[in-house]
Amino acid sequence: MRPAGAFRPDTCPGHSDQPVLSLHLEAPAGRPLSILVIGAHPDDIEIGAGGMLLSLAAACPGLHARYLVMTGTAERHQEARSAASAFLPAADVRVDLHDLPEGRFPAVWAQVKDALEEVARSCSPDLILAPSRHDAHQDHRVIAEIVPTVFRDQLCLAYEIPKWDGDLGQPSMYAPLSAELARRKVELLHKCFPSQRVRDWWDDEVFLGMARLRGMECRAPYAEAFTCAKSAILPPVLAPGSDT
Fold first, then answer.
1. Distances (CA, A) of 191 to 53, 75, 128, 143, 187
2. Handedness of CA 195, 111, 153, 89 (dihedral sign)
3. CB-side exposure of 52: number of CA atoms within 13 Å?
4. What does DSSP assign to residue 12?
């Protein structure tokens, strides 16, 4: 089955001397691209995939986005709403916020699945951005384990979040970022999540250092990295009359 919003191959721009096969997201014919982004906590989505969101918002007119955050106080929920608007400017965004107990998702597994199934009843996205099943945080892992049981026909990319646990793995997919876009992401993280500034790991060096490392791995100035458990890659479709 070819998922909507499937990738198409192309040559990575900017590295013609050592070309890297790139995969470009395409909107389905006749309608805008739709995405679902899922975070256990406010700021998870933006730390893991903020650059991707900024890129999609700029490149995909009429982008439809569903924002799902599973935990948070009133203050943190307001930060999440602010971030959804800032990272997806001009997109058609719907934000769903829950207040499940932070750090206790294994104990409320059924409620997490109920929340995801509720979204699935009204949302069939082309692309899902969600936590990784290899994440050391139990809340992230529970979401990652449930997502493919609820959304079976969508392309799902699992983002990574740097943390004290040291759980970063070997990604399989990269979203290159320009220096300008990487710095814009960090600027918006500080602006949208003031409650997190007191954390000793919340700083430019962590965010930009991580992005620079992943950029080096894919021959880009900066990048965000993802894992993908399953995808379909199809050859380009030749235009009528083209040579085979």
1. 16, 14, 25, 27, 6
2. negative
3. 26
4. P
SS3 22: strand
Contact 45, 193 (CB under 8 A): no
Radius of gyration of the chain (CA): 18
Tokens standing for residue 29: 């014919």
> What pLDDT score does 239 carry?
62
User: Which token pair is 195?
Assistant: 């409650």
pTM of the predicted model as reported, rounded to 2 decimal places: 0.89
Q: How many residues does the chain have?
A: 244
> Inter-axis angle of helices 44-59 and 74-87, to 10 degrees?
30
Summarised one tens digit per residue, pLDDT across range 12-29 is 444 444 546 788 888 888
Segment (H or E) for 195: none
User: Running DSSP on this structure, what letter comes out for residue 194?
Assistant: G
Give tens-digit pLDDT for 141-159.
Answer: 999 999 999 999 999 999 9
Helical residues (DSSP H) of the chain, grouped into ranges: 44-59, 74-87, 109-120, 138-150, 179-192, 204-217
Quote the CATH superfamily of domain 28-227. LmbE-like (3.40.50.10320)
Which amino acid appears at position 151 of this protein?
F
Structure tokens at 20: 């890297």
**Half-sphere exposure of residue 136: CA atoms within 13 angstroms, side-chain side:** 9
